[in-house]
Amino acid sequence: MFRKKLFVLKQPFMFLFSWRPFPWYELISYVAMYASVPMLAYGIHIYSWEVIRTIVFTILTLYSGFFAALIWNDITDADVDAVVHPNRPVPRGRISPRKFFTVALVFSAMTFVFAVFISLWCLLLVGVAALFVTFHNKYLKRVVGIPAYSEIFTPLQWVVVPIFGYLAVFSNPMFLSQKNYVQLNAPFLGPLWVNSLSLSNMILLAIFTYFTDNAHDLPEGIHDVDGDRKLGIKTYATSFGEKNAAKISFMMFIISGVLGIILFMKTILSLVFLIPFIIIWTYTIHSSYLLIKTDMENIKDMGKIMGRKGFDYFLMSYNLIFIDISLQLINHHFHII
Q1: Are 83 and 226 contacting, i.e. CB atoms less than 8 angstroms apart?
Q2: Tell me, which fold does domain 32-37+47-336 have in CATH?
Q3: Residue 194, SS3?
Q4: CA distances from 69 to 42, 77, 95, 289 (A)
Q5: What residues are paired with 183 via a beta bridge?
Q6: Tens digit of pLDDT for each residue in 154-211?
Q7: Residue 65 · residue 118 · CB < 8 Å
Q8: Which has the closest alpha carbon to 40: 262, 318, 303, 297?
């Protein structure tokens, strides 16, 4: 009896290994992505165990939150997926929404626990983010009548990544290594140590994240337009048409690239980041332009391909930040020696 109960308990988690066909590089890229933000916020200094601990718990928190949000999205969008993604687990019946919800709750609990190990500020942020994701996915994107509402607000889930990474550093005494900081205190939450340069860099990275993620969301919305239109979900494609959504996505990719260059100019990033970033951005812009030129018969299929390319550009941008700072840290270490 005990073994049977244990098997039933394990089933939803074993299912995760075949849940979605994640490319191997994507799963690795998330680690680099989540680590890159506190590394960028902290700068080129000697890494104490406290700094490393903060980066590790940032990765664990954001990775758990990623799975929790994605599972919740699959549960709430099961009716949409039944039209445009019928092979996904819930509409196909490979797992029940109830079991999947249990898995989402476990990942959510892990997210909160890991956040506590960083600071109460980080716990507050993931709590607010969890509430937003819950109500946005389940209710708001289906009932709010604002044109393109769903794709205007969905990217805010990814904006949590840069804000969380910086907040993990701001709420840790390790930030005292920075110059011209100001200490802010809040009841129960504890102190924050911030300076104007780091705060402006956080805002810039958050805006970059918003446009970069949204630029790839729009082509995916073109692919999902039939299911979204059937259920009254307001995306750019359902609100303004597929062609206009492709044009708006193209403009967002342009804005994203400009913001990436500004990020290089304002932060500690070097040419190790800038040169490959411009190459990848140029390729993505070209692919986005081809989407605009695609005829209506094939635009949905092309939207799926462009959505994947756009998301790879999004991930690679953060990976380049991680690689750049890692190489600078290695160089800094050997110079000290």
Answers
A1: yes
A2: Tetracycline Repressor; domain 2 (1.10.357)
A3: strand
A4: 27, 12, 17, 31
A5: 193
A6: 899 999 999 999 999 999 886 666 666 788 888 889 888 888 899 999 999 999 999 9
A7: no
A8: 318
